[in-house]
Amino acid sequence: MEVNGKDDLKVPLLQLVDSVAVTVSPSSLNEIKKTRTVMFTIGNIKCASCALSIESTLGKLNGIESVTVSPLQGQTVIRYIPESIGAKTIKETIEGLGFKVDEFMENEIAVCRLRIKGMACTSCSESIERALLMVDGVKKAVVGLALEEAKIHFDPNLIDPDRIILVIEDSGFGADLISSGDSINKVHLKLEGICSPEDVNIIQSSIESVEGVNHVEMDSAGNKVTIGYDPDLTGPRSLIECIQEAGRGPKLYHATLYVPPRGRDIEQENEVQAYKILFFWSCLFSIPLFMFSMVLPMLPPYGDWLFNKIHNMLTVGMLLRWILCTPVQFIIGRRFYVGSYHALKRRSANMDVLVALGTNAAYFYSVYNIIKALTSNYFEGQDFFETSAMVISFILLGKYLEVVAKGKTSDALGKLTDLAPDTAFLLSLDRKGNISSENEISTQLIQRNDVIKIVPGSKVPVDGVVIKGQSYVNESMITGEARPVTKRPGDKVIGGTMNENGFLLVKATHVGSETALSQIVQLVEAAQLAKAPVQKLADRISKFFVPTVVLNPVGHNRGHPQDGSSLRPPNPLCVGTEHLGGGHGRGAPNCYVPPNETRGRAARGVPPGNFTYPPRYEGHHIELDYCRQRYRDHEDDYSLTSALFYALRINSQDIQLNLHEFGGKLNLTKVVLAAFVTWLGWFIPGEAGWYPKSWIPKAMDGFELALQFGISVLVVACPCALGLATPTAVMVATGKGASQGILIKGGNALENAHKVRTVVFDKTGTLTVGKPVVVSTMLFSNVPIQEFCDIAASAEANSEHPIAKAVVNYAKKLRQKYGSHTEHFTEAMDFEVHPGSGVCANIGGKVVLVGNKRFMKSQNVPVSMEIENYMSESEQLARTCVLVAFDGLVVGALSVTDPVKPEAKRVVSFLRSMNITSVMVTGDNWSTAIAIANEVGICKVFAETDPLGKADKIRELQLKGGAVAMVGDGINDSPALVAADVGMAIGAGTDVAIEAADIVLIKSNLEDVVTAIDLSRKTLSRIRLNYVWALGYNVLGMPIAAGILFPFTGIRLPPWLAGACMAASSVSVVCSSLLLQSYKKPLHVQDSKGSVDYSNSV
């Protein structure tokens, strides 16, 4: 066993974090009213009394809404209204109490969330982020493609949400405000009786006069109002009464609850319907067009009719295809033109640009052929109207399937939001506590401290405390706990859970956005919006794979003369050994090596300094003489595509192609150039006769064959599915985790969890139950056991310490054993608490001391060798000895232990099977720590460690390599939770620990540690598989589209089939992510004997 009890304490200066909550002012919708939260770092807070004095003094100041002091971390968090008090005044007040404020900051940062419309791929989301970050005042912008939302951090003094929305709309996308500022409670009301602006002013003034109202927002017509309020001071029913009381005489106002539809659901439904309708209409035209192009011409009766000439060489078939294609191209395909316009306006390119270019090339070339056929008697050509129409149809089908599948990725989140019931039974109680009335109201009208009746089979509407009744409540939908939980008076209940049997009367404690269900939904939404670091892999891949895949196969198309012998094209450009056009990789003297390729030239056989740069070509002129000069001695190494690609320079600020830019940054504009190079790579050899005429299909010429290849490359090349590979998997995984009782705070935590190689467990409340119990007693005098326990419990009855509660509970059970049902103990006089040691009291004339050995010695109470031996034996069994002394003599001891959680040993063993090392860190003594570690199977222990020492141990383990996860539950665990790569907080722990953690285990079951890591591994594996799906279509499709198989097999990829492949890639990725919904917890896999089947581990 590896142990280390010496801790080098390091006290890092805790950095101040300042956050701003922004709301809309009641007086003006354009004015932003700030409710700020500032955190001070205070250096000399030593105890709880210091914290209490700060809280009480600041709490009396006008404008202070809340004060929270953490003595352990030396931090004070104050929420205040800037209009009433300033941060400097607060600082001076703290210093006036004798405390030193080390530092504080006053950066005003507000946050708003927006719903984005019109995004098609990562190019869209990235262009929105770039546009926002260029705006003065925007500090951070994150746009989620799969979630179709954006989260923006901004300076409210420089910009507001309305201007942010305008910036997005100027970029060609739609935007709606979801929320702005803190997650405060809001109620939406529908108003009746509003006839004039005066009525609006009356109602607004009345609402603003209510204490606790933070903001009021009325629509332009005055028919609806949104009110933000403090649930501690007011509630929805009070606001409705205020509105109705504002009416006097002929002016009568009435307000009812208005539940606005969830914006995301409405947008998603509208998008699905839009694509469904577009695809339906495109099929009405495309299917007949396909028949007229591919099927009917091969049937004699219909083919003869289609080939009938109307005028000159214009046939009936050509005219019909033109008529059927035009509505698809310009009416049904209008969205691609609009998207292309906005993309080009912001100087970028996306999928819409590629589709528009590809389909327009096919359409207008076909129109050109029709004009030639109409005006010429000798024209022989073919139209490609079916190409553009079918490409648009297949892409619309793909988008329809994609939005349907994307909607299913957030199913878990939708199910969570639907858990809360619509109505509840509100009770009114008289002074004696009897029910005086009962009304059924909307759940949204429940206010804090309301008493709610919950009947059997109904859902709990809000979080609260049971004040009467007993029942079993099914909490599986929130915590994942399979078995119903017993609820008695004093127990907490969670909104959205199911009451199985028995009546409960519950007092509401958390309502609106403060309920556990609302907090879970908000956390999961934030996690789904955050980008995982693995998303960067998609960005890197999209930069490099398109040119490599396109240019290599086309570059190897050497061509063949009419006689079939091999003949290399005479005009390639020497571009060194790292050219993308193919070749054998041999070095070449005096050849062009681009600037970003000079590194490592000697290793590749290219003499350093022995190279020259080609002259800069202006406009579209291709200087082939220079190519010939460089090709004479090294013609085996270089291909036609390389020559055409690198000799080509377009003189434009937006599109400039050279190797340096090509290797470092790729946008979709370069895909257009790749398609052009593909066309050129087939057209020039065809015109020069470098491949047999028999390769050209009937009714086509070399130009048309090359055009088909170019359009296919253009359509299939867009890496749209790459942008969906990560966010869709993260959305499904975080939603699935939430349904299993695991809250993952973002893609970063989800990704880091799969790297974990060491899990550090806190002992108390994490590996153990956290509720000490007395397991044995030892008497060292002739005092009766019942009297001994009664006196000890009387002394401990006034203490809130967990061990004190264990002593009291043990005494109560002992009374019941001896037939006594009295629950009250003798009143303790002169009660004193000695923190960390014990208590002292006078009970029945006896001076009673209850505490540890150190406390007894400090009170001059002798501790005999017999007592020392008993204590040593108890510590070896992971038990804590509580000594009890009467009038200066130890009369007995109680052995207290915190039982190990039943699943702890199984979890440690399962982690070992996953190649993860388990470590325990605790502030308890070494004997207890080692005993607990041996019981659960942990081989590495750090004991007698304070909170900052725990964080240091985490850093030590990180230095040894591998990611480290910390699992804890208390305030003393928060520094370690922050220091760890992944912090996991037990859900029953403190709010500070939960806030500091990356992952929250709602039901406090250690099995969920394994589940969180396993879910992370499964998700990362799924993301990698998504990349395979996303790239597979491009990597395989692009060479085929460019014609790599055509010279050998005659197989080519028509443009319409390329469009189908492009659509299928996105659908495949989303469907692949949806498979995560079938995820099962690994520790639920049991063998026939009921033990864990470790063969199913990751």
TrEMBL record:
The stretch of residues making up the signal peptide is none
Which residue stretches, if any, does this entry annotate as coiled coil? none
A GO cellular component annotated for this chain's UniProt record is: membrane
- HMA domain residues: 36-102, 110-176, 185-251
Cellular localization per UniProt: Membrane
Membrane topology according to the record: Multi-pass membrane protein
Principal place of residence: membrane
UniProt-listed Enzyme Commission number(s): 7.2.2.8
Q: What class of enzyme is it?
A: translocase
Annotated membrane-spanning segments are: 278-299, 319-337, 349-368, 388-405, 666-685, 705-726, 1027-1050, 1056-1076
Q: Which reaction does it catalyse?
A: Cu(+)(in) + ATP + H2O = Cu(+)(out) + ADP + phosphate + H(+)
| Record's keyword terms, sorted | ATP-binding, Copper, Ion transport, Membrane, Metal-binding, Nucleotide-binding, Repeat, Translocase, Transmembrane, Transmembrane helix, Transport
NCBIfam families found in the cross-reference section: ATPase-IB_hvy, ATPase_P-type
| Name the record gives this protein | P-type Cu(+) transporter
Q: Which organism is it from?
A: Kingdonia uniflora
